Amino acid sequence: MLAPYSVAAIVRALRHVHGDDIARAMLTNGTTLAALIDALLHSPLTNRDAVKLMTQALRSNDFIVTPDFSSVWHIKYVYDRPKSLNVVDLAVITLDHGIFASTDIRLLLAIDRVVKQRGMDDAGANVRSWGQTRPSPIVADVAFWTQRRH
Questions:
Q1: Do 5 and 138 touch, CB atoms closer than 8 A?
Q2: In terms of residue numbers, what domain contains 18?
Q3: What percent of the chain lies above the pLDDT cut of 90?
Q4: Is 10's pLDDT higher than 90?
Q5: 74 close to 92: Cβ distance less than 8 angstroms
Q6: Does residue 129 form part of some domain?
Q7: DSSP 3-state of 74
Q8: How far apart are CA 118 and CA 113, in angstroms?
Q9: Residue 144 domain-assigned (yes or no)
Q10: Is residue 25 part of a domain?
Q11: What would the pLDDT profile of 88-138 be if each residue is shown by its tens digit?
């Protein structure tokens, strides 16, 4: 994971607002950026921290973002009133495709990519070259939590 603490904070916010089962479905099946923003703004996080997490979700490779923004894009923050610093929404501006509202952007937690990219086994433990494992608690917790219960 490129930003494990950010992913863990997003997971906590979704669980706080929606509960375990719905949060798990949102992460594994995908959700809109608008739904993520709503959950982050209704969680106990400060507005500043929620905005950082929104931005990190878009910029890191921990989430698969659709549609593809192309190589040049910019985040436009929407504030609740003039001269306010409270962000209530955001949009993405691209050169090639125009403006995407948060309702048009989908995020999917890239668990498979995260586990394989970081050299981890299926349980989320870091695999060392000599065969020993060192647990990665954040990745293991998120990976275990997002697996479907049978």
A1: yes
A2: 4-108
A3: 62
A4: yes
A5: yes
A6: no
A7: strand
A8: 8
A9: no
A10: yes
A11: 999 999 998 899 999 999 999 998 755 555 554 444 444 443 344 444 455
Distance CA 125, CA 107 (A): 25
**What whole-number distance in Å separates Cα of residue 111 and Cα of residue 64?**
10
Q: Which two tokens stand for residue 55?
A: 């931005």
At 25, the amino acid letter reads: A
The Cα 55–Cα 15 span in angstroms is 19
Crossing angle of the two packed helices 33-41 and 4-18, in degrees rounded to 10: 80
Are 42 and 23 in contact, with CB atoms under 8 Å apart? no
Do 41 and 47 meet the contact criterion of CB atoms below 8 Å apart?
yes
Residue-wise pLDDT tens digits, 64-96: 999 988 788 999 999 999 889 999 999 999 998
- CA neighbor of 100 nearest in space, from 61, 51, 65, 134: 65
Confirm whether 22 is domain-assigned.
Answer: yes
Please, are residues 11 and 145 in contact by the beta-carbon 8 Å criterion? Answer: yes
* Residue found by looking up tokens 């937690």 in the block: 109
